[in-house]
């Protein structure tokens, strides 16, 4: 069961680029969570997966030289869900279909992958912790960076459209 959670139902075993596959698998799951209860359920699910992911990653990697095996993608799922939260909130607050905001989905996906792969500034420092918290937390921070960029992009895009 731990491997199912950490690989996000097997997405982490897809090759190449399991992190990208995990991020892609997070998108339909985000849509389902949004449909169940909007951004609040999505945020709750991200928090639950973060805490269970830390515990499961710690249990899975204890005694191993590899603290962050590529097949563990629960961290990417959490980060992707955080990155897409502004889109979920915007859809919920404005009573718009979540899928209609596809530019936000694309931006959230691409920006999260950019921050997750490049690991600028504090993201790289947290990743260097070499423990389960570092495995999960660097993606949370990458998701927050992406979410902020999605918000800025949305404000600029809507200001330009309305101008």
Structure notes:
The structure is a single chain. The protein is mainly α. It contains six helices and no strands. It has helices at residues 2-6, 18-61, 74-93, 102-118, 122-127, 132-162. The longest helix is centred in the first third of the chain and has 44 residues, at 18-61.
Secondary-structure blueprint:
Blueprint: H1 2-6, H2 18-61, H3 74-93, H4 102-118, H5 122-127, H6 132-162
Computed structural class: mainly alpha
How much strand? under 5%
Name the helicity range. over 70%
What are the low-pLDDT stretches, counting only 5+ consecutive residues below 50? Answer: none
Order of helices and strands: HHHHHH
What is the makeup of the main sheet? none
Number of DSSP helical runs? 6
Shape: globular
The tally of strands reads 0
Alpha carbon gyration radius: 16 Å
Gap between N and C termini, in Å? 52 Å
Compute the average pLDDT: 96
Concise summary:
The chain is mostly helical. About 75% of the residues lie in helices and about 0% in strands.
Structural features:
globular; mainly alpha; 163 residues
